[in-house]
């Protein structure tokens, strides 16, 4: 199915109007975004270059994720519908009203509800992520965007410093694993092959996909960097508590090529959709060290079980 292409900011903010289309090169590129939205030239912008030695160690409360689906038949996967959209700037995954995902804990004072997730990538495997770690990018970055429940809409949330939380996941292409494919991302990249033009979308009937994207089995969900920042596209609202997970996930080169085959709103290949890092200024970046690790009573195995699987085993997972 093909829908009229819309600016990524419009889709992201569900009705918050922008005066002009943005892009990633030329007159509408990142260096000129402040002409589209003045906030894009602000002092608390994202993404950033995280220099690990300059981060401050902290032990926040556990970060918790809760999944809840509403369906008449627990075996009916058709009721768990997700919509994957080529919005002309990225591949974006949205859930329907019968699925609720919430995030709380860590430095967050409130509960945040999932709105959508999307991806950023580059022309080759040595670029693509918006966040840099020690000056180095990864090949792909996934952003999970969540809204503070005390605000009724995205348009309202972006006007508040605590309005949004974004979870950032970094991916790279491993060397030497020629036949490897990320099985979770395969469900995304297979669909992308049928929605290359801007405005196209595909319905995915998969109850487990969103959960597996947010909580992949190899991710340490409690070890992350966090700071106060902004949306990385216009209007660049400075309303985001950022989480960038320390675990680097993997995907295949062939899967990355499926992202690059998408077409932008102007019909050109979507091969470069990341914003360069912005000045950190006087902001602090915190590295969360789970309390078990901080006490010295935790080995690698128990850390994995306690931190990665805890959200699944008792910190809020519920499939109803």
Automatic annotation (TrEMBL):
Assigned protein family: Belongs to the alpha-carbonic anhydrase family.
Keyword flag Signal: yes
Signal peptide bounds: 1-19
Domain Alpha-carbonic anhydrase: from-to ranges: 20-289
A Pfam family: Carb_anhydrase
Entries under InterPro entries matching the protein: CA_dom, CA_dom_sf, Carbonic_anhydrase_a-class
Entry protein name: Carbonic anhydrase 1-like
Keywords annotated in UniProt: Signal
GO cellular component: cytoplasm
Matching PROSITE patterns: ALPHA_CA_2
GO molecular function, one term: carbonate dehydratase activity
Source organism phylogeny: Eukaryota, Metazoa, Ecdysozoa, Arthropoda, Hexapoda
């Amino acid at each position: 199915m093909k829908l009229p292409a819309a600016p990524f900011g419009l889709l992201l903010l569900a009705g918050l109007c922008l005066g002009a289309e943005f892009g990633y090169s030329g007159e509408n590129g990142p260096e000129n975004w402040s002409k589209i939205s003045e906030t894009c030239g602000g002092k608390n912008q994202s993404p950033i270059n995280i220099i690990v030695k300059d981060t401050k160690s902290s032990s926040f409360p556990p970060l918790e994720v809760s999944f809840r689906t509403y369906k008449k038949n627990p075996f009916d996967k058709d009721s768990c519908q997700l919509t994957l959209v080529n919005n002309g700037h990225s591949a974006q995954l949205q859930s329907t009203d019968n699925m609720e995902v919430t995030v709380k804990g860590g430095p967050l004072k409130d509960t945040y509800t999932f709105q959508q997730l999307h991806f950023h990538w580059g022309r080759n495997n040595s670029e693509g992520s918006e966040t840099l770690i020690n000056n180095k990018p990864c090949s792909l970055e996934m952003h999970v965007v969540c809204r503070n429940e005390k605000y009724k809409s995205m348009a309202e949330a972006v006007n508040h410093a605590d309005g949004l939380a974004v979870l950032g996941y970094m991916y790279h292409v491993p060397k030497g694993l020629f036949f490897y494919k990320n099985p979770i991302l395969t469900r995304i990249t297979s669909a992308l092959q049928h929605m290359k033009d801007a405005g196209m979308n595909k319905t995915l009937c998969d109850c487990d996909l969103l959960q597996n994207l947010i909580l992949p089995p190899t991710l340490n969900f409690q070890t992350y960097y966090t700071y106060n920042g902004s949306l990385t596209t216009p209007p660049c609202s400075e309303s985001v508590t950022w989480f960038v997970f320390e675990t680097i996930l993997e995907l295949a080169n062939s899967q990355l090529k499926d992202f690059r085959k998408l077409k932008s709103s102007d019909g050109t290949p979507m091969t470069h959709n990341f914003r360069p890092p912005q000045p950190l200024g006087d902001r602090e970046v915190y590295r969360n060290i789970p309390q078990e690790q901080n006490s010295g009573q935790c080995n690698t195995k128990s850390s994995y079980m306690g931190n990665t699987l805890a959200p699944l085993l008792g910190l809020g997972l519920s499939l109803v």
